[in-house]
Design a protein that fits this description.
This protein is α+β, with helices and mostly antiparallel strands and 205 residues long. The chain is built from 6 helices and 5 strands. It is 51% helix and 14% strand. A 3-stranded antiparallel sheet has the order 1-5-4. The chain has a two-stranded antiparallel ribbon with strand order 2-3.
């Protein structure tokens, strides 16, 4: 009996010691976790670098129901301008406050009138409305590619219009007007190098 009581007593002591060890281990783990949390709080988070995804923004429109002649003239009219400036100018064209310069023969006028020499032109309202839609979608692509910080240096680099396949009209006696339009903004090389160099310097810090 004495041996049995001694064994029980030893077994109880072992369990008690195991409980103590487990409690000490839990305390150590909790203290380590608290120390990690404190370090996280102390160390400031690095600022996220808003680097552009692409250094260009493009809009391609296919088979627009507008005149090719008017589209070519508007492309020359907005090329080299900022998006906001181009939209404002086209809104003035719709309001007939600013003509779009055109070359060649202009209806209801005698002879060939050069737009740059005499400042003559027309008000292609339908084409201007379509181009405003394209310019707004182009500005959306600029924001999607994270180019808002470079908006001061962004200008319409490429603006081109090409003849699309023209479907026949009713009864097949005439063809409808269809035009492909491409608008593209490209970040200048100098600005691109500046952005990349700034990114490297911030990464080193």
């Amino acid at each position: 009996m004495e041996n049995k009581d001694a064994n029980k007593h030893e077994h109880k002591e072992e369990k008690h010691e195991e409980k103590k060890e487990s409690l000490t281990d839990k305390k150590i783990i909790s203290s380590q976790a608290e120390a990690k949390d404190e370090k996280k709080k102390e160390t400031p988070k690095k600022a996220l670098l808003l680097t552009p995804k692409k250094y260009e923004a493009v809009v391609n429109a296919r088979s627009l129901p507008i005149s090719l002649k008017h589209s070519v003239a508007i492309c020359k009219f907005i090329r080299g301008k900022k998006i906001s400036q181009a939209v404002n100018d086209l809104e003035k064209v719709i309001a007939e406050n600013m003509p779009v310069p055109m070359k060649g023969e202009i209806p209801h006028r005698k002879g060939k009138i050069t737009s740059k020499a005499s400042g003559s032109g027309r008000y292609p309202k339908n084409a201007a409305k379509e181009f405003i839609k394209l310019l707004k979608s182009l500005s959306g692509n600029v924001t999607a590619n994270k180019l808002e910080d470079l908006s001061d240096d962004l200008r319409i680099k490429i603006a081109s219009a090409n003849l699309a396949s023209r479907p026949f009209g009713r009864f097949g006696s005439w063809r409808r007007k269809r035009t492909h339009v491409t608008l593209k903004i490209i970040v200048p090389k100098k600005k691109k190098h500046e952005v990349k160099s700034n990114k490297k310097q911030e990464g080193r810090k």
